[in-house]
Structure formats: C-alpha cells, structure tokens
Task: structure prediction
Amino acid sequence: MPARTQITRHDCVEGWSAIGQWTGAQLSRILDMAQLQPNARYLVFHCMDDFLGSRDGSGLYYESIDLVDAYHPQTIIAYSMNGEVLPIRHGAPLRLRVERQLGYKMAKYVQRIEAVESFSKMGDRQGRLLGRPRLRMVRGDLNAQSNILHHRRA
Result:
C-alpha cells in the first residue's frame, strides 16, 4: 500500500502545538480495500491504552470519527514520525492522524478499527472507554486481510 508523508501541526486542547512529519497509509485506501457495509457511518478505533479506574473496570480506550473525516486525504494510519519508526510515547505501533481535528481525536496505540452504524451498543454510548476486546498487535503491511477492520452490523 502506498505511503503518504505529510508535515502538519498538532493542536492540543491543553493549549500547546507542535509540527511533525507523519508517514502512514491513507485511511481511505484501507477502507476501500475493506469494502465497508453500506450502513457504516462511523469508525471506532480500539486502542491498547489501559486506564485504571474506568467506569466498567476494563480501562480500554477508543476514539471515533465519521466517514467524512475518515475519507479526507490527510487522514492516515501513521507508523512513522519525523522519518523514524513511530515511538511508543507517540502512539506505536499505529496512530490515527485526523488533521481536520484537534489532537484528542488522534488515537494512539491503535489495535483495531471497527465500522459501525451507531454507537448504541458501545461502552457508555458516548465514546472513549469500552469493555475489554481481544488484544492484538497489528504488524506488517496494512491491508484488508490483516484484521485491521472488523465490521459490526447494527
């Protein structure tokens, strides 16, 4: 899959900004290969973050975006930062980069992407923390056969 490299500014809701070079696969290409179900409206990025004290006790984090942001050409699944392999502190092995959004939407430690019609069956229905899915690291080429995408019917 072709790589996209872009230099963009990361704006944090906490008031700081930083400019970095990101390389990864365009999310739109991954989605095209996966052939989303027609009823898919959102993507959920399941992450490997482990927070203590989450409401359901699982501690696992997720983030979501709509398909408009997902298909934007600058939305990538990054595996490199500033010409180096993406370091753990910046989200390795994979990090979502959604350049039309603030930093909190750019999920780190992505393990799985799920296409959904609604959020009615997810966590507290508002995002961010979720029950414990099966953990798996995604390695190698990003392609539709690498279990990056999991479709859920509503």
Q: What stands out?
A: The longest strand covers residues 17-26. The longest helix spans residues 27-34. The two ends are 30 Å apart (CA to CA).
